[in-house]
Design goal:
This protein is of the alpha/beta class. It contains 14 helices and eleven strands. Helix 9 (about 230-240) packs across helix 13 (about 295-305). The radius of gyration is 20 Å and the shape is globular. The relative contact order is 0.10. The protein binds nicotinamide-adenine-dinucleotide. Nicotinamide-adenine-dinucleotide binds next to helix 4, helix 5 and helix 6.
């Protein structure tokens, strides 16, 4: 039994299936699999054609793409081959990029295995590859032909990975409207790690909410940009801690910093989301001291300044305003830079 729905795209429409134990019924021994090293033993029993990657942010690079492409040639993959990617956001970003360029594009299918990739990144077709210290500098749009969300993968995730996914889902629903946000909280209360099926409604709600943004603005030129809420602070925090802070956690802290920076932390809707984010972060039980200790302010500002959404003259941030979330531009001054750093530092001091 699985829940299915279709996402419309200018490239090609694709199906999303959410259910329990889907992986065994879809993978056959002639498929080409790209997966996280963590799943190597499992997939080598299912197929001879397995390529593994170490899911490290520093390896989400063009060099790794080239290594994978060489392995695809050695496995004699051709234009008609299908690549099956199984993993979290790092495997997904690499798979999107290589499937789009191998022999000018082959079919690919995706099984997200982290809650973040199930709730958020699997939909929308973006690839994001790092170049040097530039996070997600290059990429393109090339959605999988099919997405299978096998919720049984949730079982092995730790509390940090769960919180990381939940924070991204919360962000999507908050960006949409109050009723999506409230419904998300209701489904969240029913989700229990020892019963992965209870995550089905939460994931489906998050994705169907994201679907509105993606179908409205697939190429990220308008309303989809609101999903970057918390990301400029978050990406810079990931970078300034050598990626010790997982992506979704960094986005959660980034949302807190962005709200503080907006000066609107006392509005009712912001008080609601602040309290929700703080509760989820507290439930993650991550090592706060390690994160505070590893934070390098100058690396933070340097990464913040490199965000590809800014222009030479302006910072461009997604911030809460009287009208809800909006993209707001500010002059790039030293004073503004100091304020940005203070807001991030305050979050780190109080998590
Ligand atoms: N392309 C997009 O639209 C998009 C959107 C958001 C984030 N991202 C990218 O995604 C990346 C982060 O991805 P992520 O948070 O999904 O994780 P990840 O791929 O970085 O993996 C994180 C850790 O989780 C482990 N893991 C994966 N599945 C597991 C499972 N079922 N049980 C136990 N452990 C498991 C991995 O081995 C790894 O150690 C970042 O590079 C971010 O930039 C991309």
């Amino acid at each position: 039994m699985s829940n299915n729905f279709k996402v419309t795209s200018k490239l090609y429409d694709y199906d999303i299936n959410i259910g329990l134990n889907l992986i065994g019924s879809v993978i056959t021994d002639d498929m080409f699999i790209l997966t996280d090293e963590r799943f190597e033993n499992y997939f080598s029993t299912l197929s001879k054609n397995v390529i593994t990657v170490l899911p490290q942010e520093s390896l989400k690079s063009l060099e790794t793409c080239e290594l994978i492409l060489n392995k695809m040639v050695n496995l004699q993959m051709n234009r008609k081959s299908t690549l099956v990617a199984v993993g979290g956001g790092i495997v997904q970003d690499l798979a999107t990029m290589i499937a789009s360029i191998y022999m000018r594009g082959i079919r690919w299918v995706y099984f997200p295995t982290t809650l973040m990739s199930m709730m958020d990144s699997c939909m929308g077709g973006k690839s994001s590859i790092n170049v040097g210290h530039w996070k997600n500098l290059v990429g393109n749009y090339y959605p999988p032909a099919e997405i299978y969300i096998d919720v049984s993968f949730v079982k092995s995730l730790d509390s940090v990975a769960i919180a990381s996914g939940v924070l991204e889902g919360l962000k999507i629903c908050y960006a949409r409207d109050y009723s999506s946000f409230t419904k998300f909280k209701e489904f969240l209360e029913l989700a229990a790690i020892d019963n992965p099926q209870t995550y089905t409604n939460l994931i489906e709600h998050s994705l169907k909410t994201k679907q509105w943004f993606v179908e409205e603005d697939e190429k990220d030129e308008g309303v989809r940009q609101l999903l970057n809420f918390g990301h400029t602070f978050g990406h810079a925090l990931e970078s300034a801690t050598e990626y010790l802070v997982p992506h979704g956690i960094a986005v959660g802290m980034g949302m807190l910093a962005a709200i503080d920076f907006s000066g609107r932390g006392n509005s009712t809707s912001n008080l609601r989301i602040i309290s929700e984010i703080r509760q989820i972060l507290a439930g993650a039980h991550f090592d706060r001291e390690k994160i505070q200790f590893s934070f390098v302010p100058k690396d933070f500002i340097s990464a913040f300044n490199k965000d590809k959404k800014h222009t030479n003259a302006y910072y461009r941030l997604v911030l809460p305003t009287e009208m809800g979330l909006e993209v707001v531009a500010f002059d790039r001054t030293t004073e503004m830079e100091n304020q940005i750093l203070v807001c991030m530092q305050q979050v780190l001091d109080t998590i």
